[in-house]
């Protein structure tokens, strides 16, 4: 952040992280307006909503794509021998549809529902002990984006609610955040949590009886939850995601005042950039850090 005079409006060039080569912004005036509203509202008006896989976690590390919560869950040895193979087959079938820039959200949704229904069928009818999740993370745990620990710490100290909205395996998301020591009391997770009958796995609990997929993640799913009470009056939002469906996660924010949407783009940059710029205010191309978010928080908190 460059030095500014009191009362002076913040410009993009005043925020060092927003001037890097990886940053793409289509409407600079709009972004500057939102940033100034966020700063004026301060910490008491702020909430943070973030996707998990490839958003809080790095998209790649040391030349390898980071594993998703589903992928890491598949490393559990208690799972049937065929689970990993069938789960990967579903990923290869449906992931290209999820990120296809030529398809509309409405066209993709039936395929996403189909994906999660089939994924649930794979996770039914056998015993499973969740203790193994922490054991697996000792061997295979994705890195959080550089600067994530600083981000979570500053949000905790400012008592700003953080909602992690994930279409992945909620039990694994929770364990990964705990592993990295960022599962602070202000962090809340809405995801597909494993459902049990005794020790027998029955699939996912989901939210309100519905599975959470990429295109139905928004705060309408938690209107009656305890978390919704915590965010009353917090109508300023920093939102982070890695697919265009994540841009809708703040749709349920009541009386939204300022929502800044940050998108992390890594796959098929040339093909997807225009679509990302249509949905996100700031697009970060192959940026594996939280520098932009931390730069903004340093002004707001």
Topology, pairings included?
Layout: E1 23-24, H1 28-41, E2 46-50, E3 60-61, E4 64-65, H2 69-73, H3 83-98, H4 105-122, E5 124-127, H5 131-137, H6 148-157, E6 162-169, H7 170-179, E7 187-192, E8 194-197, E9 200-204, H8 226-230, E10 236-241, E11 258-265, H9 269-279, E12 282-285, H10 291-300
Parallel strand pairs: 2-6, 2-10, 6-7, 10-11, 11-12
Antiparallel strand pairs: 1-12, 3-4, 5-9, 8-9
Helix pairs in contact: 3-4
Shape field: globular
Rg, please? 19 Å
CATH topology of the largest domain: Rossmann fold
Q: Count of DSSP E strands?
A: 12
Strand content: 15-25%
Strand order of the largest sheet: 1-12-11-10-2-6-7
Distance between the termini: 14 Å
Q: Roughly what percent helix?
A: 25-40%
Mean pLDDT: 89
Number of H- or I-type helical stretches? 10
Please give the largest β-sheet.
7 strands, mixed
Q: Label the CATH architecture of the largest domain.
A: 3-Layer(aba) Sandwich
Superfamily (CATH H level) name of the largest domain: HAD superfamily/HAD-like
- Poorly predicted ranges: none
The chain-level structural class is alpha/beta
Which H/E pattern describes the elements? EHEEEHHHEHHEHEEEHEEHEH
CATH class term of the largest domain: Alpha Beta
How many distinct domains? 2
